[in-house]
Amino acid sequence: MTEATCHGLMLCDDLIFFSRVSGAARAAGLTVRMVRSAADLLTAARAAQPGGVIVDVHNPGLDLPALLAVLKDACPEMPRVTAYGSHVEAAVLRAARQAGCDRVLPRSQFVEELEGQIREWLAK
To answer: What residue stretches are annotated with the Response regulatory domain (predicted)?
Structure first.
């Protein structure tokens, strides 16, 4: 997949979960690229100008407010940001909403909505 064909980026470090998301994206005619760090996400976003970004809020070392501020500067058209995380970490999910994510879901709801919503989350 070239940067130009990338519809979305996913910041996570779980290859098995990413394969589930990329499979749903592929079924919807979209492509998604996995990145493992905020720095990698920003580099990829500058090159690909994605329609959407999916973020695991439990990614190690993630400073979500700082990432979103830099992402806004990196992309002329700010991509939609969908975040997911553990339902028992309500404060972390609330912080993601306050940081400016467009959609914040517990991981179980993210999985439940994945096939039906992936196009809305990633396509421009």
So the answer is: 7-122
Q: What is the pLDDT of residues 23-45, one digit of tens each?
A: 999 999 999 999 999 999 999 99
Alpha helices in 1-124 (DSSP H): 15-27, 38-48, 64-74, 90-99, 107-122
Q: Tens digit of pLDDT for each residue in 98-107?
A: 999 999 999 9
b/e map 8-18, b = 16+ CB within 10 Å: bbbbbeeeebb
- Contact by Cβ (8 Å): 51, 27: no
Domains and CATH numbers, the chain: 3-122 (3.40.50.2300)
Alpha carbon 122 to its chain's center: 8
